[in-house]
Specification:
This protein has about 575 residues and is α+β, with helices and mostly antiparallel strands. The protein folds into 3 domains: about 130 residues, Acyl-CoA dehydrogenase/oxidase, N-terminal domain (Butyryl-Coa Dehydrogenase, subunit A, domain 1, Orthogonal Bundle), CATH 1.10.540; about 100 residues, Butyryl-CoA Dehydrogenase, subunit A, domain 2 (Beta Barrel), CATH 2.40.110; about 300 residues, Up-down Bundle (Butyryl-CoA Dehydrogenase, subunit A, domain 3). Helix content is about 55%, strand content about 10%. The strands form 2 sheets. Strands 1, 2, 3, 4, 5, 6, 7 and 8 form an 8-stranded mixed beta sheet that branches. Helix 12 packs across helix 15.
């Protein structure tokens, strides 16, 4: 497949404009360098990480450190970092490929993500030259292990409500006092990115070394899952931090925290994709081997439906993920800094975080069901995958918070004139009326999804005005509409570029179901905002442009299941 001709776009503009299939990046467009990176990361995972699973789950943090150092030695920690600072300075697509590959080992991917995303990125994006030179080469090599200290017991989703204090001393140094919770790598990290309020008011960030006086870790938490990653509190008892430990500017810590979260959501989606693909492979291998009533359970329709649906949902998220990676890389190529690029596509990052974590949750749950009683015991990895995946809906901002962020960001951009939301809502987007393939109906449904999303966003703005942020139920319905729109369009565009029957079926089935979900979400939202004749008129308008199907989804899923069973795993690997 030829490389797509990507141009720089703005976040969420796909909601109000048409996108050509040739303008989206997909895994099938990987360069040879991308494929070599994937091979390196996958081989490292298979040869070094997976065999160490039991050691990691038994809290062998020396092995965790050693694995991070091995990552450094083969260049997996420095994809975002310039060569002058010890990195390999690759595009963001490469970073996604590495994250997805490592994501097949949930516990270690959490350790890895804290190092590459939560420790390296803040210093890379916001550190001074001196801070970058002092810390980044050792973080990239794995000589230093990093961690990120944002959450507190009383300020989970409200990160800016932190109570940890920083007081400047006469000599310019700082005294930090407080306790941070849920710190990944907390038991063995050498370096912490700590957020505190200067004089109890100005939210700021600091680079804190474990060796500084007053810095210590609590015990490892007894968690449901991710037993092979360290999660502790970090205790700051009048911890003395040198003057040059301030990261960025006083009172600007929110810029660091939120921009790092944008990238973290993006990378978490990649790790979820990697975990889901591994789980699909294990599920189909088990189903092909397990005999019931004289034949493999993979031959039964109910099991085949599960294998197909797991694959369809993973395909949709993967399509969104690499489409977004292409948009970010195009923005950077056009002159944006990485910070600016991820700010621009913050909406897509939140959509990815929600969709990927919920897709993975679905996949691991169905995998347990495929395994039956064996899925509930620790003799099989299905049980571990199930426990490990649950936290993904809490990591990097809960899915509820991310759902509320999406329509809020869209409305703000519309009010600033950056997104022609109101104008698009008043006009018809063009249906693609081609009937030459299985995707014809899906293209019509995508157009309908866009109109429905725009209609609900516009109606919510006009109904609630300045109080819209308080209407969380309607906002979450709007977010689900936008999410299904982006996922469906990304799937259809990718399948159109591929021109391959199984991919077309996967995109068509996902889009068909998205259309059914959208109809219910839209009607629920409209009923909450209107009554009487206005309600009936608006529902009639909705009926006028809702187009979904018909599609034989049972037959389509059977065909997809055939491919999954024949391949013994996920069938769309680029």
């Amino acid at each position: 497949m030829s490389q797509p001709s990507l141009r720089s776009r703005t976040g969420a503009d796909w909601l109000t404009t048409e996108t050509s299939p040739s303008a989206v990046f997909t895994p099938e467009a990987f360069t040879e360098e991308h494929r070599l990176i994937r091979q390196t990361a996958t081989e490292f995972l298979r040869q070094d990480v997976l065999p160490a699973t039991d050691n990691l789950e038994n809290k062998d943090w020396a092995r965790s450190r050693a694995l991070i150092q091995q990552c450094g030695s083969v260049g997996l920690l420095g994809t975002d970092v310039p060569e002058a600072l010890g990195g390999v300075d690759l595009d963001k697509t490469s970073s996604v490929i590495v994250a997805e590959s490592i994501g097949a080992a949930a516990s270690f991917s959490t350790t890895f993500g804290a190092q590459t995303g939560l420790a390296i990125i803040p210093i890379l994006w916001f550190g001074t030259d001196a801070q970058q030179k002092k810390y980044l080469p050792r973080l990239v090599s794995g000589a230093l292990i990093g961690a990120y200290c944002l959450s507190e017991s009383g300020s989970g989703s409200d990160a800016l409500g932190a109570r940890t204090r920083a007081i400047r001393q006469p000599d310019g140094s700082w005294i930090l006092t407080g306790e941070k919770m849920w710190t990944t790598n907390g038991a063995f990290a050498d370096l912490f990115i700590v957020f505190a309020k200067v004089d109890g008011e100005q939210f700021s960030a600091f680079i804190v070394e474990r060796a500084f006086p007053g810095v210590s870790s609590g015990h490892d938490e007894h968690k449901m899952g991710l037993l092979g990653s360290s999660t502790t509190s970090v205790i700051l008892q009048d911890a003395r931090v040198p003057a040059d430990g301030l990261l960025g500017e006083v009172g600007k810590g929110h810029q660091i925290a939120f921009n790092v979260l944008n990238y973290g959501r993006f990378k978490l989606a990649a790790m979820c994709c990697g975990g889901a693909k591994r789980t699909i492979r294990e599920g189909v291998e088990y189903a092909a081997a397990r005999q019931q009533f004289g034949r493999p359970i993979a031959s039964f329709g109910a099991i085949r439906h599960k294998l197909a649906e797991m694959t369809i949902r993973a395909f949709a998220v993967e399509s969104m993920l690499y489409r977004t990676a292409g948009l970010v890389d195009a923005a950077i190529a056009a002159g944006s800094s990485p910070v600016e690029a991820f700010e621009e596509f913050a909406i897509e990052a939140s959509l990815l975080k929600v969709s990927a974590s919920e897709m993975t949750g679905f996949v691991v749950d169905e995998n347990v069901q495929i395994h039956g009683g064996n899925g509930f015991v620790r003799d099989y990895p299905a049980e571990r995958h199930y426990r490990d995946a649950r936290v993904n809906r809490i990591f990097e901002g809960t899915n509820e918070i991310n759902r509320l962020l999406v329509p809020g960001m869209i409305v703000k951009r519309a009010l600033k004139g950056r997104l022609p939301l109101i104008a698009a809502a008043a006009n018809d987007l063009q249906d693609d009326l081609r009937h030459d393939d299985v995707l014809a109906g899906a293209r019509q449904t995508v157009a309908s999804l866009k109109r429905t999303s725009l209609m609900i966003l516009d109606l919510a703005m006009r109904t609630y005005g300045d109080t819209l942020a308080q209407e969380q139920e309607v906002l979450m319905l709007a977010a689900d509409l936008v999410l299904d729109t982006y996922a469906a369009e990304s799937s259809v565009l990718r399948a159109t570029r591929l021109a391959e029957h199984t991919a077309a079926l996967a995109a068509a089935v996902f889009t068909y179901d998205a259309g059914l979900r959208a109809d219910g979400s839209a009607r629920t939202a409209i009923a909450a905002m209107m009554s009487g004749d206005n309600l009936r008129t608006t529902l009639s308008a909705l009926d006028g442009f809702q187009r979904t199907g018909p599609l034989d989804t049972i037959g389509a899923r059977r065909t997809i299941a055939d491919a999954v069973v024949a391949r013994r795993g996920y069938v769309f690997n680029g």
